[in-house]
Amino acid sequence: MNRMEEIRKAVETGRRKQIAGLIKEALEEGCSPFDILNYGMIETMGLVGEKFKTGEIYVPEMLVAARTMKEGVEVIKPLLMSGQTAAAGKFIIGTVEGDLHDIGKNLVAMMVESSGFAVIDLGVDVAPEKFIAAIRENPDCQVVGLSALLTTTMPSLGKILTAVREAGLHAQVKIIIGGAPITQEYADKIGADGFAADAASAATLVKELAS
Ligand code: B12
Fold it and tell me: How remote is the C-alpha of 65 from its chain's centroid?
């Protein structure tokens, strides 16, 4: 098995203690950190999701896979971040109420930060009022990102947009949305200002909307 396949296997089976070493070896052997992230880890999490859906694995297995990926991301994080420090603007991000998924949100936060933005991460399970308070406290924030991974938490996206409009804050900030079940069509339907399918596109979108 080559190193990349070993990384995939380690994520899939939640071999947390092995992941850092495997990634370091893959890097030494010349693998790109972006391939390790996209093919080695993100794609594998999709596979893990499929196995959960078909009942082949359960929540604990999904959790150890997620923890393994998180540790893997820590290893390549310095290589993915460009180290740009110029203040391009401010970005607030959070996972919506009822939703605890944060790997994708964290990657978006990392890529946006890497493109020069100050990032305020509100964490997971964030109520609409908390987003409103954060926008009020940060009048220099141009873009807010909402992450939702569950079909049951998708309606929270629309609720937050409504709350932002009703608070008279939509003229001040653009709201973008993302997460595995989200589409451009859904973003249009609820009147979000943007959608991106992955962290790199999210960073480009934030830059566009902030300028
Ligand atoms: C890992 C995982 C978990 C972990 C989460 C750990 C963590 N700290 O995040 C744990 C075990 C806790 C978990 C729990 C649950 N999960 Co879960 N989980 C997953 C899994 C396997 C991977 C998610 C992931 O991290 N992917 C990798 C990242 C990098 O991808 P991503 O999140 O999509 O993010 C990318 C883009 O979407 C985008 N993006 C993300 N956010 C944002 C935000 C903005 C603004 C933008 C622009 C872009 C953007 O950029 C990111 C980077 O490229 C998915 C399967 C899947 N295919 O998504 C299921 C999945 C999401 N889970 C699912 C379910 C059902 C659950 C549970 C309800 C299970 C249960 N019975 O308890 C609970 C719900 C808990 C809760 N209240 O949130 C279902 C959802 C089904 C549905 N229709 O809603 C899925 C799809 C699995 C499946 N196929 O059935 N889960």
Answer: 16
Can you give the pTM of this predicted structure?
0.95
Total tally of structural domains belonging to the chain: 2
Nearest CA owner, ligand 1 atom 19: 49
In a shared domain, residues 97 and 140: yes
DSSP-derived letter for residue 169 is: -
Q: What residues does ligand 1 touch, defined as CB less than 6 Å away?
A: 42, 45-46, 48-49, 52-53, 59, 62-63, 66, 98-105, 107-108, 145-147, 149-152, 176-180, 196, 198-199, 202
Query: What pLDDT score does 84 carry?
Result: 64
If asked whether residues 112 and 51 sit together in one domain, one would say no
The alpha carbon torsion through 177, 179, 182, 188 (nearest 10 deg) reads 10
Q: For the segment 32-43, what is each residue's pLDDT rounded down to a tens digit?
A: 999 999 999 999
201 in the same domain as 140? yes
